[in-house]
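Let's do one together. I've listed all components of the complex below, 970 residues spread over two lines.
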Amino acid sequence: MPAPSLPATFTRRRRAPGLGESVLRPDAPPKVRGEFAFSSDLYVDGMVWGKTLRSPHPHARILGIDITDALRMPGVHAVVTQDDLWGSRTYGLERHDQPVFADTVVRFHGEPIAAVAADHPELAARACAAIKVEYEVLEPLVDAEAAITAPPIHPDGNVFRHIRLRHGDPDATGDVVVEGTYEVGMQDQAFLGPESGLAVPSEDGGIELFVATQWLHVDRDQIAACLNLPREKVRLSLAGTGGAFGGREDVSMQIHACLLALVTRRPVKMVYSREESFFGHVHRHPAKLWFRHHARRDGTLVNVESRMVFDGGAYTSSSTAVIANATCFAAGPYQVPNAKVDGYAVRTNNPPCGAMRGFGAVQTSFAAEAQMDKLAAALGMDPVELRLINALKTHDQLLTGQVITGVAPVEECIRACRELPLPPAADPGADLMTLPGGAGRTALSHNVRRGVGFAVGFKNLAFSEGFDDYSSARVRLELGADGEPVATVHVATAEVGQGFVTLAQQIARAELGVGSVVLHPADTQVGSAGSTSASRQTMISGGAVQMACAGVREVVLERAALDLHLAPADMVLGDGELTTKDGERSVPLADALRAGPVEAYREFHHAPTDPLDENGQGNAHWSLAFAAHRAVVDVDEELGLVRVVQVATAQDIGKALNPLAVTGQVEGGIAQGLGLAVMEEIVVVDGRIRNPSFTDYLLPTPLDMPPVVQTWIEQPERGAPYGAKGVGEPPTISSTGAIVAAIRAATGRPLDRIPVRPDDIALPTPTTAAP
Amino acid sequence: MSASDPDRGSAVSDALHDPTTSDSRGAQGYPGTDGARDLPLETYVLSVNGRELPVDDAWVGESLLYVLRERLGQPGSKNACEQGECGSCSVLMDGAVVASCCVLAADAVGSAITTVEGLTGEGELSDVQRAFIDQGAVQCGFCIPGMIVALTDLLDRSPAASELEMREAISGNLCRCTGYGRIFAAFRQVQQERAHARA
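Okay, and this is what the predicted structure of the assembly comes out as:
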């Protein structure tokens, strides 16, 4: 089914729409009125402000910390450092290797040293300034390649994970061989709502934390360990979350705020500044990737060899899973009978890296797609045809040996994307604002060249490698005060902007035939929903809500059937009514609920997966999603400036449960892909972040975003609720590669590094040594 | 260790996240350890959304954004960059869009300030707000109050603004979720509705 074509203006609907329709967000009215409470908006009487002191050095030994002056300041309530911890001193998503406060050694620029609670945020900042820290500055280890063999900078060593993937005959050779080395810069999630929250000590000695996060329960477990509290005494509630994109999967201010609250016995609010946000969360891994592709003369891929090094920075975070994705999906969505891939994720004194939208698949997609274009050129083939010849499909094997059992419409995505309309030719009389460089008005239209590029990407949906990935939902159906049935859905699913709040209501309405669905606030008083990441919540939490609704439905059907002396199987639950299958008799749902509320609690677990074996082989992934992107760019070669004119995409989505929401995910994901292609990079020099601000870290603005033309391939995925696939990440995976391919087409430059900078286009190509 | 030894850091530079950037507050050191006594206070009145609101004993260094959010119970304006780059804190000051993070609150005395909370009456939605909802322009929503203030201002000042003019008008409003496509659609909806109403 084609997506609503751009510039679609959606017609307002009058009736209550259901699944598959563009239901509007329940949280949108408070958000447009400024009434929605984000995590930085929280306020409670008696609260004090928390603030972190961070290291100015990427690598140093702490010789002493003197907090005397800071503590003496009137209005300062507490200063905590590594000396004040009473629970676990470290935390982490996969390994607990990250100190709550730098513990004797500082391993990255901006690592927390101390936290302060004070009456006013300015006072907290001054108290931080009054803490005296004596450092012995050490040489930072900043070269990821060198880190593999360098002396360890952490007791756990420098290699987070090395995956040695060997598939088929790893030494197989082809008639045509192309080789390349590629580099990806460090991208920031740059969610707009800064890390923030409010920690409130509770009377039982525990703590309540209202926080913006992606996964309440995994935060809770790390916090509880560091506070040495039983989990049930650590209660988290989701506060309004201003975006996430992977950057809130790791703990940031959570433990510090809770420590301060317990020490001061006061509510503590912490809000990062934008600058601190750049230091306070993990980023997308920078990576260096070498590839050698072998193909037959007809274009069939024979072997893909690769060696890639991902710089994970100082602590593990989710590096071990990121490198698994990068390795497993290294060759892109193509049939490759033989492969030899070595993926390394390593520790350095650079900023820690972890999850960001696309999670490992972004870096390899950029490199592998550049290789496909290189191969097409060597073969004298059309690059899109080369992709079609090799496109993966159901029953094919991944590089891991896993046979794809779900839908894999790669060919359909490529064909549909290719057919989408191209933009009109450049208009020589166009407003100078629309030329490369935009508001600078520096480009000349006769210097501008247009290029078109194509790329295809894929990744896994939900968690892989044997992880028991699940979500929990409690659904209660009862009579409301007005005597009408009302359903309450309680899930811990973090709404970070993706729209699960809308979908949960759609599912409950569809499954229970009720108009009124209330969402209980997301908190840890219900089972885990897992992370809002890996494009997984529509499938996993959607599945949990569907199952819990079905559990409720069974009970009301039993009640109605008992009334009519029938079997439950003879009845169906329709719109507010329980009806016999022949339609002859019915019982109002409200009547069935008079006997009392009905409640059900269910967990949805996706089908089990296996770990990778010593050759990187195994059925490690559950479901996959694919997308093709085509980009059109205008480039002023003299100035090195790029304007993206249009991005077209065809995406494999299973089934659109809310077309408006899918449209927004695709457009938003492509914006982030565009950012990585041409502007976004955290510049790290000698371990130091040089551009921790929105002045110097550039995000796509309304003037940078081109029209997005999208179409969807809807082939329902078996085993997924309603056949829907997650849609959040594929737009970000290959949009970057398509844009860079278009710049290459316009300029003839190799452009093996992203983001592409003006220098890379305008200055002579440096001669690079062979790897 | 002394403040003049940049390679080793110091009590002063330790507080700055990036010692390579100059921070005018920190360069000569903070005023010492007297804490609250070093925060000069001021009492004044701000005119916000048509109401005169007293601000008592506030540190003079507080931005308009901070005072609105933390002292006057108007957290609709958002704090995403606090240096005037993202537009999330946009408010109208005497009818002009400003980044309230870059205005000292004490400097706003005597100006009429309109925040997102003041664009409509309680429980009401303006056509711009309605269009954002209808067109799916809201995801996380953090940029939305500033975006609504900026687009409301543009559509009032320049009802027939072209798409390019609209993009330029909100080019100081960053959105990280939507890629702007649905926001542009909301703009078109309002223009069409208003054109229809005039016809």
